[in-house]
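Figure S4 source data
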Amino acid sequence: MAEIRQLRDKQPDSEKITINLGFVDLGRIDLLVQEGFYSNRSDFIRTAIRRQLDTHGDAVDRSLERHTMELGLRDFGRAELEQVRAAGEVLHIKVVGLARIGSDVTPDLARATIGSITVLGSLQAPADIKKALADRIR
């Protein structure tokens, strides 16, 4: 029998959100989809959001600089956090996008090296890490 290996779980590249729309707005979106302007409702909504974000791009950039936040995907693993601990430092994590704390990080290591964590977007971490950092997540 062939050796069976478990593949690593695929991490989602997006976050699902729920919005409420009036019936008229929803009907107008459905009309645009029916006419072929968009492939589906989600495509329309993603496009509208991206256009709004582009419109406010300068304001977002200035805010990122003012708050010294990282933009995009930021991973924190055991090796990096052990280096932080060895240097006697504490991280104050600020991310706009996705912050991930690896499954190789222990709750004790996370508490010893992460002073605060602010994520505008999504934080992915094992449940025990989120519990250990609950008082530090803003």
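Figure S5 source data
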Amino acid sequence: MGFIETIIHADEQLLIYLNHFGSEPYDVFWLQITKPLNWLPLFLFWLFLLIKKFTWKQGLFMFLFICIMAGLSDVLVNIIKHSFERPRPCWQVGVMEQIRSLKCSKSFSFVSGHATTSMAVTTFMYLLFKDKFKWTILFYIYPLLFAYSRIYMGKHYPVDILCGYVLGVLEAILYLKLAKYLMNKWFDTNLLK
């Protein structure tokens, strides 16, 4: 067995192990966690923080910028998914028989869009506020729960999640540089350095 095959096999075994922690009483909770709309209170809280840190126009600009970043992240994820064409665990022969699958979709598995986008948005917000509030590290509860829901439901492998996290962090760093540049140029401010 080659190196890549060994990683894929270990990834499948780790998914099977982690997925078995699931049980029916918790299914409703994880089904709710995986829906982006259920995180609306967190997003509104972030909007509040942005408006409080900047003016309402600047805060709204940053919030819209984050929304655009999330949309572009989704586009990039789909390009990657169609390039690798890794089947989801819930329809991968040899894996699907060994996991609990709550919902399955026919799109590809690598990388996880939930992991990538949630990590990009969270890291963007964390980097923006980490010097002002020490508790912003708690923002990372969001991508951890959000992405684990995909393993719980049998929709993604752990490597899909980890690679999505790495991609999300890279996106956040790059987009934050762009946001700072645009904010300083358009609003004639040096609030963001």
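The chain has seven helices and no strands. The longest helix spans residues 56-84.
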